[in-house]
Write a structure and sequence with these properties.
3 domains, Aldehyde Oxidoreductase, domain 4, 26 strands, binds ligand MTE, 5-stranded mixed β-sheet, alpha+beta, single chain, binds dioxothiomolybdenum(VI) ion, globular, Aldehyde Oxidoreductase, domain 3
């Protein structure tokens, strides 16, 4: 049995020994380095661009501007509003204007300093709350990129009688930096008259399309291979299209290999981030604590271009009301333009912001009602047969209640709470607190992105019985190749060592859409299982013919194959079938269940499956300084089926810590001129091993009937509820309600101001 086992990650050895080849490890004969010339200002008109002196610098082989683009000057994502290189206008500090290729990075740098650009500055919009209908026009008439809404049940009803209790509050969230270990990079070269791109990325098919369109090459002349990728977290979904196109335009014109690798500062200043936001919540319950209505108003700062914002905003809209039975819902969501870096995908995709707001409001309401935060959640959580925020009937793999019960039990919550109260009664300045959050996550691209929802694969069995599998989704550190190999091994009843999952290459596999939205396990699983089913069919036919009998099925187990009353060694069967020219090489294409949504009401079957989670966090707050220490976290997740329990636990711990960083310390600062000034890890601090609390992961397996071996996705979910668990624990400790994250010591102190010491 391979599924359900904590096998060691297939890529672990090469990564920990340093043998893995990242983009920067690749060197090719005659290779040039590329660097990007960028706008120094947030908003302006390019009056003149002079590259003539820079071109004379020794070692500089080419400088490419918008004039040198053979195809469209657009990086395709969703709305097609982002140019590849700025031609007339610059829209944010760091906006790419030209790309330099030279024989050394130093020569590139020299050229960047020598290029002359004259820009007539325009008034810029930095504060996103000022963007809509501003006289400065950044996008169409009103600067609104997109909007979504939900109108469910009696959404307009007023609840002002004494029978109801309401909380109304506004919350703010900041940018979050992906902080992947490996910065953006790619190497591009010609091979067999095909422009070949090896890059650090999540979505090779995006890169293939974007570069083809920029360079006016047919898709099949652009071959994209994902190089070992040192972390992504959403930051390598759409952005590599831009980065790869920068190296590609140089390689295209100069016909030599060109490598581009960003340094950390450039990466942090110019690459996508999590959308900053303002979320207004008005949550109403009856006197018993049953939620009757939620009103939400979600405003996202998209930055200069829309990139993935429509997908991010849709997810935020659907997830705002949380995993609760609420019959009446009114949500408005909008994303607006500013002259700051375009924001994009980041683990959770627009939902951590609204979950922070809603989960804070749930606690505030519990307090008003005199209820415990765990109790109020228990009263309102959805179960089988209930509907979610968009009216979708939840009837498959609804593990919310089970997660809740297991987490409360594992945490021994009510005793834990007592111990903390005891501690606090004896401690004057250091106070402990518990914070709770419950949440859910729609797996896959959802109704707003379903056009890309498919799973392509290839499986080939060689004569010795070893297997090569290829899927259209990528490994970015989350363990996808390992779980894919486990599912192949499980199907064929063979050892996982016999299975190789090859790196994704667009010349070998067809478009599967991006590896995002926690769809990796489900997509890879569906993909390989559909190809394997065909191989099994061929073997079935072959055996029936060979044995001159018919039987219902072929069973693969423990290296053996059983059919009718017969049994063969797996390797023997494969050798026999190969010798008799049976083609043990199949491709698969699986199309996931449909999703729907109505533009007017937001109602429909938003996602095909949902994962469920609950977190309880203990922190210690210093009342004098406002400093918060993370102590212990019990984090429960329903994953359908844990294909690899150790990897699931790893995702829970890593993701939760990333969420705690978001809530507690990651404080990206943008100057009044729109420039990111915390552009390295000394000014933008993320959690280190010293900050990690004791983690107790709780895995719930509610079996998703339409998932491979019952699995669904959950890779983003661990991050999503940690910020409110943190701020709720701070409130529990010292009575300070932090409404704007991160909860820096200054903000905690500020929120404590009304408190009597
Ligand atoms: N884990 C690691 N180590 N590195 C990553 O880049 N990305 C996260 C999550 N876990 C990420 C990660 C994000 S944003 C997503 S969408 C999922 O993994 C994607 O993986 P899956 O769908 O295969 O679970
Ligand atoms: Mo994850 S943000 O969906 O790549």
């Amino acid at each position: 049995m391979a599924v359900g086992k904590s096998v060691i990650r297939l890529d672990s050895k090469e990564k920990v020994t340093g043998r893995a080849l990242y983009v920067e490890d690749i060197y090719m004969t005659g290779m040039l380095y590329a660097k990007v010339f960028r706008s120094p200002v947030a908003h302006g008109i390019i009056k003149n661009l002079d590259i003539s002196e820079a071109l004379k610098i020794k070692g500089v082989k080419g400088i490419f501007t918008a004039k040198d683009i053979p195809g469209k000057n657009i990086i395709h994502v969703i709305l097609d509003d982002q140019p590849f290189l700025a031609k007339e206008k610059v829209m944010y500090p760091g906006h790419p204007i030209a790309v330099v290729a030279a024989i050394t990075p130093e020569a590139c740098e020299k050229a960047l300093k020598t290029i002359k650009v004259e820009i007539e500055e325009l008034p810029a919009i930095i504060d996103f709350e000022q963007s809509k209908n501003n006289s400065v026009k950044l996008f169409e008439n009103n600067n609104v990129f997109c909007s979504f809404k939900i109108r469910k049940g009696d959404f307009d009803k007023k609840y002002d009688s004494n029978d109801y209790v309401t909380v109304e509050e506004t919350f703010y969230t900041q940018h979050q930096e992906h902080a992947y270990i490996e910065p953006q990079g790619a190497i591009v070269y010609w091979e067999d008259d095909t422009l070949t791109i090896r890059g650090s990325m999540q979505a090779p098919f995006y890169v293939q399309r974007a570069v083809s369109e920029v360079l006016n090459l047919q898709y099949s002349r652009v071959r994209v291979i994902q190089q070992t990728t040192g972390g992504a977290f959403g930051g390598k979904e759409d952005v590599p299209s831009l980065v790869c196109a920068q190296a590609a335009i140089c390689a295209y014109h100069l016909r030599v290999p060109v490598r581009i690798v960003y340094d950390r500062e450039e990466d942090m200043q110019t690459m996508s981030k999590r959308h900053p936001s303002r979320v207004k919540i008005k949550l109403t319950a009856d006197k018993t604590g049953k939620f009757v209505h939620v009103y939400g108003d979600y405003l996202e700062n998209a930055g200069a271009y829309s990139t993935l914002t429509p997908a991010v905003l849709y997810r935020g809209t659907v997830h705002l009301p949380g995993p609760y039975k609420i019959d009446n819902i009114y949500v408005d969501a909008e994303a607006v333009a500013t002259n700051t870096v375009p924001n994009g995908a980041y683990r959770g995709f627009g939902s951590p912001q609204v979950i922070f707001a809603m989960e804070s409001a749930v606690d505030m309401l519990a307090e008003k009602l005199g209820m415990d935060p765990v109790e109020i959640r228990g009263k309102n959580l959805v179960d089988y047969g209930d509907t979610n925020s968009t009216g979708q009937i939840l009837n498959d793999s609804v593990g919310m209640k089970e997660v809740y019960n297991k987490v409360v039990e594992k945490a021994d919550y009510f005793n834990w709470k007592k111990q903390i109260e005891e501690f606090n009664s004896k401690s004057e300045y250091i106070k402990k607190g518990l914070g709770v959050s419950t949440l859910y996550y729609g797996v896959g691209l959802g109704a707003a992105g379903k056009s890309m929802s498919r799973c392509a694969s290839m499986v080939k069995i060689d004569a010795d019985g070893s297997v090569t599998a290829s899927v259209g989704v990528t490994e970015m550190g989350q363990g996808l190749r390992t779980v894919t190999a486990q599912m192949v091994a499980e199907f064929l009843g063979i050892d996982i060592d016999k299975v190789v999952v090859s790196q994704i290459d667009t010349s070998r596999i067809s478009d599967t859409g991006p590896t995002v939205a926690s769809r990796g396990t489900i997509t890879a699983g569906w993909g390989v299982l559909s190809a394997l089913a065909k191989i099994k069919k061929s073997l079935h036919k072959f055996l029936e013919k060979k044995y001159n009998t018919s039987f219902e099925d072929v069973y693969f187990k423990d290296g053996k194959v059983k059919f009718g009353n017969n049994e063969l060694e797996y390797s023997e069967l494969i050798k026999m079938a190969t010798d008799e020219k049976i083609h043990l090489h199949e491709t698969g294409l699986h199309v996931p269940p449909d999703t729907t949504f109505d533009k007017e009401t937001g109602l429909g079957d938003a996602y095909y499956a949902y994962a469920w989670a609950m977190n309880i966090l203990e922190t210690e707050v210093n009342k004098l300084t406002g400093e918060v220490t993370l102590k212990k976290a019990v984090c429960g997740h329903d994953v359908g089926k844990a294909i690899n329990p150790r990897e699931v636990a790893g995702q829970i711990m890593g993701g939760s810590l990333q969420g705690l960083g978001y809530g507690l310390m990651e404080d990206m600062q943008v100057s009044s001129k729109g420039k990111i000034i915390t552009s390295n890890f000394s000014t933008y601090t993320i959690p280190t091993s010293c900050d990690i609390p004791e983690f107790i992961p709780v895995i719930v397996e509610s079996n998703y009937s339409k998932g491979p071996y019952g699995a669904k996705g959950f890779g983003e979910q661990p991050l999503m509820g940690m910020a409110p668990a943190l701020t709720n624990s701070i409130y529990n400790a010292v009575g300070a309600r932090v409404k704007q994250i991160p909860a820096t010591p200054e903000r905690v102190q500020e929120s404590m101001k009304n408190i009597d010491f």
